[in-house]
Amino acid sequence: MMQCFVDVTDLPAAAVTPGTEAEVFGTAPDLNHFAAGLGLKPNYLLTQIGGLCHRRYVTHLPGDC
Asked: Which of 1, 10, 12, 29 could make a disulfide contact with 33, Cβ separation 3.0–4.6 Å?
């Protein structure tokens, strides 16, 4: 079974309700920063995500030209 936990302790209670989406790999912090904090290479994180995890691919980010 795959599980992921996100610590929201420091967020206001109104900011986090059941069903709130969380961005794990995105622009802030980016994947390189996240991997460096774990002492891993970025590609390792991406290749170890199992097929049971929902993935949404974004081809255009807000603010991109």
From this structure: 29
